[in-house]
C-alpha cells in the first residue's frame, strides 16, 4: 500500500513539474517583455524581470510611445480596430449564409462536398500566391493604402474558415426545429433568421472573435497594401523597428501593444480556439 | 440524408451561397488567372520596362537556373519538416504524460494558448531580442552558466535552427492541446481491455492509443505543415532572409521579387510554382477533412 501511494505521489509530482516547466518556457518571453517595457534603454539589455529588486521601473518606453510616437501609434491602432472589426462583420454575414446553405440545402450539380472542399482549399493555399495580382488590382482601382483594400483582403483570409465553422455549427442544430417552424407557416428565410441564427449565437460570436484575431494579426497583405494612411498596427511596428540597433524597451512595449488585444480575446474564448484552428476537426 | 423540407427545388438557396462564391471568384479566381497570364511575360515594372511576352521562359529560368529558388525551397522544406516533426514529438510526449486529471486545467490551457494568439510579426520581434547575437537574452543566459555565445542570426548553420526554435515555441502548445483533446476523448474501457489482455502500458500506447488517434495526428500534422509553408513573418522580423540567404522562405522570395524589385512576371511565375508544390500537400489534407463534411 505504502509503495503504491508513493508511486502515486511521484506521478503527481512529475505532472506538476512538467506542467510548470512547459508553462515557464511558454510565458517567460512574455513576462520578460512586460518587465522590459518598464525599463530604461540602458537597463533594457538585461535579463532582470523583477521590478525594484533587479531594476528600477521607468516609464521611458511608454512615454516614448504616448509622446513622440503617439501620432503613428494611435492612427495604426485605429486602423487595425476598424479593419478587423468591419472585415470580421462582413465575414460573419457571408460565412453565416454560405455555411447555412451548405448545411441545409442540397446543391445537386456542384455537390455540397465539392463546394465545401473548394472553400476550405482557399484557406490552405499560401496567400502570397495572390499577393502580386491583388496588389496590381488594388493599384488599378486606386485602393492602395485604403481601409477598403485591407478589409477585402482580410475577408478573403477569414471567410473560408467562417464558412467551414458555421457549417459545422449549423450541422449541430437539429433540423426538426426548423422543420416544425416551416410547417407552422414560417418562410425559409424566416426560419433561418428567427431560429437557426439565435440557436447558433455562441458559434457566431466564436467566428467573429476568431476572424478578428486573425485579421488583427495578419501581416503580409497589411504590409504590402498599406504604407501610410491605412497602415495597420503590425505593419507599423515592422516599419518602426526594422532599423538597426534595437531599443529593447521600446520594442517590448510595441510588441506588447500588438499582442494584448488578440490575447485577451483568445483567452475569453479559449474553448473554441483549438476547434477554430483545426477547422472543427478537434473539438477540444 | 437531408429531409425533403430542404428541397432541391428551393431557388432561395442560391441567395445564401452566391455572395460567398462571387466574392471568392473576384478575390481568388480572377487574381490567379491574371497571375498565370502575367507569368508568361517579362515585366520589370521598377525600371518602367514594357511587358514582353516570353512564353514559358520564366518557368524555365526558375527550375533550371534559379539557385536562389532552390535554396529557398530547401530551407522551406527543412523548416516545415523540422518544426512539424519536433512539435509532433513534443506534443505527443506532453499529451500522453499529462493525460490525467490536470490540476488547474483551464489556467494551464490559457497559459499554453498565449503564444499562438500573438501576431506572428510580434512574435518575431519578441524573439529577435532573445536571439540577438551581442546583447540578446539567450546569449546572456548562456553566459551566466558559462557556455559560449551562439551566433543565432549571423551563422549560416545556426540561423535556420533559430527560426525553427521560435516556431516550436509558438506552435508546440497547439499540437499538445489538440492531441490532449484527442486522448481524453478515448474511452477508459479500451485501456482496461488492453490491460486484461496483458498489454503493458507501452504496448497499449503503441498498439491501442496511437492507431485510435491517428486521424487527429494526421490532421494536426498536415494543418501545421501547410501553415509552416507560409513562413513569412519570422523571416521578415528576425533574419530578413540572411545570413547569405540561408533563412529565406519561398513566401519571402516572392514578396521581395514582386514588391521590392517589381519583377512582376517572374514573381507571378514563382507564385505558381510555389502553389503547385503546396497543392500536393493540400490534396492530402483535403482528402482527410472531406470525410467529415
Essential attributes:
heterodimer; A: MetI-like fold; 2 domains; 73% helix; B: 293 residues; MetI-like fold; 12 helices; 71% helix; globular; transmembrane helix (chain A)
Structural notes for this entry:
Chain B: It is a multi-pass membrane protein. Chain B: The chain crosses the membrane at residues 12-34, 77-98, 110-130, 161-183, 204-226, 264-289. Chain B: It is found in: Cell membrane; Membrane. Chain B: Pfam families: BPD_transp_1. The complex is a heterodimer of chains A (284) and B (293). Chain A is an all-alpha fold and 284 residues long. Chain A has two domains: 2-62, no CATH class; 69-277, Orthogonal Bundle (MetI-like fold). Chain A is built from 13 helices and no strands. Chain A has helices spanning 2-36, 60-66, 70-104, 112-124, 131-140, 147-172, 175-183, 188-199, 201-217, 220-225, 233-241, 248-268, 270-277. Chain B is mainly α and 293 residues long. Chain B has a single domain (58-290), classed as MetI-like fold (Orthogonal Bundle), CATH 1.10.3720. Chain B is globular. Chains A and B meet through α1, α3, α4, α5 and α6 of A and α1, α4, α5, α6 and α7 of B.
Could you tell me the radius of gyration of chain B in angstroms?
A: 24 Å
Number of helices, where a helix is a run of at least 4 consecutive DSSP H or I residues of chain A: 13
Using the 3D structure, state the CATH architecture of the largest domain in chain A. Orthogonal Bundle
Please count the beta strands of chain A (DSSP E, at least 2 residues each): 0
Helix content of chain A: over 70%
Spans of chain A with pLDDT under 50 lasting ≥5 residues?
none
Beginning-to-end CA distance, first to last residue of chain B: 12 Å
